[in-house]
Amino acid sequence: MSIVGTDYNEAQAEVARLEQALRHARLKLVAAHLPSECPDRGHLYPTSNYLNEVPHALLLISDSALPLGSFAYSSGLESYLAHHKPLAKDTTPTACFQHFLHVSLSSLAGSVLPYVLCSYRNPDTLFRLDNDLDASTICTVARRASVSQGRALLSVWERALRSSGQQGCKVASSHLSSLATALKNMQAQVSFLGPNGHFAPLWALVCRAMGISLDQTTYVFLFNHTKALLGAAVRASVMGPYQAQGVLASVWLQEGIREAMETNWMVKTEDAGQVIPVLDLWIGRHELLYSRIFNS
Questions:
Q1: How far is residue 28's CA from residue 11's CA, in Å, rounded to a whole number?
Q2: Could you tell me which of 205, 134, 214, 147 has the C-alpha nearest to residue 176?
Q3: pTM listed for this prediction
Q4: How far apart are the first and last CA of the chain?
Q5: How distant is the alpha carbon of residue 210 from its chain centre?
Q6: Which is the most buried residue in 19, 123, 135, 138, by most CB within 10 A?
Q7: What is the rounded distance in angstroms from the CA atom of residue 15 to the CA atom of residue 136?
């Protein structure tokens, strides 16, 4: 075989083809030794649509280690437990928590989820939604928690997640930058007139800017709230970590989140409101507890 006059690029391309063919042959050899009942026996490579089914951005935004400060808030759970002592003889702490979880999810879906949906569908309304949510949040403790986590999310977006939003919505990215600039200007001028940075509308825009679908955005929003509540329950000694994981993996939780999404999917922000008024009382009385381990 003559190699005289062979072009370098052509030779390099041939080496690459041969190396790829060798890798493919080795994968076939490995696959031949897999058990016949193995579900991916016929897949030599990951399926082509796996990144579409579980986007990388979705894994980032649903990470429990995302520095939003959620661990510092119990969303009223600590106050609820304090106001329900002692428990009835036929009520276990786990059953008490599950009741609160259902109440909290219903409240969040009815009062806040419409703002997530509207912000995702209409990024141009970010400032108005932020102002409306601030005006409609009666409980001071809940408002403070929402603003704190919202500004933390905006900070994470600017410092870490913005680069992953290149394939997402440019309009959403632009409005996030505008809000961040407005907040910085407001702080520099020591002014109380301006945007607040509530969590729900910012969550929607960050997800849209990262290319996450609306279905996934709303589901993870409710799921993350559940994770935060379960984390608070574990630290408050209501249940153990294995029980908490069991709740996260339960079918009734998945069905409850889907039902909350379906019920409020087309609800307008002007029709949103607190559907469990007593929850505001529990959250609001949190600051009156003699001792507490959470900020809300």
A1: 26
A2: 205
A3: 0.81
A4: 78
A5: 12
A6: 123
A7: 66
